[in-house]
Amino acid sequence: MPNATLFKLIERITNLLRSEERKKYAAIGLQPVHIQVLEYIASCNRFSDTPAAVAEYLGLTKGTISQSIQVLERKNLVEKTQDQEDGRVVHLALTTDGSNLLTEIKPIDVFEQAQEAVAKSAFTTVEAALNGLLIELQKGNNAKSFGVCHSCVNFMEIDNHYHCNLTQQPLSQQDAKRICREHVLADGHDFVEE
Questions:
Q1: pTM of the model
Q2: How far is CA 2 from CA 8, 31, 116, 130, in A?
Q3: What CA–CA distance (Å, rounded) separates 101 from 83?
Q4: Residue 91 covered by a domain
Q5: What per-residue confidence (pLDDT) applies to 193?
Q6: Would 79 be classed as within a structural domain?
């Protein structure tokens, strides 16, 4: 059976990274899929530089890729050429502007910082390393942690009952196991707990 905690950590890390990508790329008038298309075209060989191959590689529909390529063509980042032997086949290539853009776009800075912080720590499990990465990403993004109550600084146990010190409300056992948008990580805890 797959480890649900690992899955949740990977999913949360991915959501944070995608959110940062959307912000960064929106500033230049593009979506993450556009950058993914550019990166694919930059790395594929001449047998795989077709719209169908891009769609297959990214796991997206041909229509989505077609629209993305049109956007990239209008921005002069990609150019199409007909195959010389089979006119039905279209090849894609980056323009100089497309290549320059990929060079300028660096990996998300906050991810690099988080990766460096995690590399300095000695983790004994993949789960602990991913949890450390998530903590660093959330710090770097000033993002809400959306952790479970048991790991929150506001979680209290009073007379054998759970209580939220922030809302001054009692918590059921079920509440205490669910994620909360007001979560603030308590020292020594993980974001995702079972």
A1: 0.60
A2: 11, 32, 28, 16
A3: 26
A4: yes
A5: 44
A6: yes
